[in-house]
Amino acid sequence: MRIEFISTGDEVLSGQIVDTNAAWISQLFFHQGRAFTRRHTVADDLESLIDIITETSHRADVVIVNGGLGPTSDDLSAEAAAKAMAVPLALSQAWYDHLVAKYGQSDRTLSASNEKQAWLPQGSDVVDNPVGTACGFSFQLNRARFYFTPGVPSEFKHMVSAQILPDIQQRFTAVKVPTLIKIKTFGISEAVLNEQLLALSLPETITLGFRVDFPLVEVKLLSTDAVDLQQARLRVLAKLSQFVLFEGDECFAEYLQALMLEKGHTLSLAESCTGGLIASELIAVAGSSGYLDSSHVTYSNESKSRLVSVNETTLAKHGAVSIEVAAEMAEGAMLNAGVDFGIAVSGIAGPGGGCDEKPVGTVAFALASKTHTYSQLLFIPRKSRQGIRTVALYVALDMLRRELLGLDLAAEFGSIERRSDLNSVKR
């Protein structure tokens, strides 16, 4: 089955707005086993619209057209559809009456511009829009069944979910919906992942995919064969074990929150180069107050001593970016807050501030618990300040994940270079 999607509009084509509708419907249909074969973006130009409608009508089984159904002069989808069908526009009395009633409810009169939205290609079927004023419409042209939809995301999504997708499912042969497994990895590149997983020679029933969401790479396994899929999942997890963060659709902060709440643990943070980035990531998830007690942005040396009790002698001897200072930061954050864990990060994010001994990208991390403290000094070879800080965020949170799961905190992360580490039992 061939399904194509047409996005219309000068602003979409020029990149002034991001085409979130196309991404949303592509994902929805993919999960229903009806992936798109092509996507197109066309300007608000009548001839271009007629051309793409005519072209796709001979090739596709289903074509969904998004946008261009509004009341203004550059909304040309209905006119283009009528010309491609070689029929006139005709007034949909049912939708016209609906608009009159809708405007009357707010003591307004239907204008000539808004009346335009009731003129549809002759012979087409109305697709209801309970959210807005632009109805959709549907018709058969050559091989393809066309569905025209408004561009407003809330109206578009409601129309697709409630009417268009069910209509497609009814009109066309049922398909077996595949199951998708997502595995989030960290510390390994997409290219290396691809090489390692291709070496597994997974069954042909498995579709393997990747999605980069820096600094994570998501591995996707898709299949309609449940047995093959689970076997492939276990083989992939075994192959990538040291790089796997978690599985599923949730974000890393959601995953960690579930672990922390399940175990009843609490946390305090002391951040220097990340400047509150870790706290921001965690508190973006509702309910994080159930385990996150506090966070300190200890950017200066003075604040490291004042807020999280770092010894001035330690700072003077080892410098702010050191395993010794990071360890005292994590311990101070934990002890001062009376929590179960403290995490600390102190580094050189650049673009200046580095030296031969500690170049830009050098970052010290520490995790303190009531029984031990682990600190490590890593070199993160990223060119941008934000890149270094983002990788540091994930290294720090991965340390917490490893601690909660009883794993070795001394992880190896691909191109990230280990400079030194310290694991000492205290208290």
Q: How would you portray this structure in words?
A:
The chain is α/β, with parallel strands linked by helices and 427 residues long. It has 3 domains: 169 residues, MoaB/Mog-like domain (Molybdenum Cofactor Biosythetic Enzyme, Chain A, 3-Layer(aba) Sandwich); 69 residues, Alpha-Beta Plaits (2-Layer Sandwich); 174 residues, Alpha-Beta Complex (Maf protein), CATH 3.90.950. 39% of the residues lie in helices and 25% in strands. The strands form 4 sheets. It has a 6-stranded mixed β-sheet with strand order 2-1-3-8-7-6, with helices on both faces. The radius of gyration is 28 Å and the shape is elongated. It starts with a strand and ends with a strand. The mean pLDDT is 94.
Main features:
alpha/beta, single chain, six-stranded mixed sheet, 15 helices, 18 strands, Molybdenum Cofactor Biosythetic Enzyme, Chain A, 3 domains, 427 residues, Alpha-Beta Plaits, Maf protein
Number of helices: 15
Largest sheet: 6 strands, mixed
Total count of strands: 18
What level of helicity do the residues show? 25-40%
Q: Determine Rg (CA atoms, Å).
A: 28 Å
Low-confidence stretches: none
How much of the sequence lies in strands comes to: 15-25%
CATH class of the largest domain: Alpha Beta
- How would you name the CATH homologous superfamily of the largest domain? CinA-like
Give the overall silhouette: elongated
Mean pLDDT: 94
The order of strands across the largest sheet is 2-1-3-8-7-6
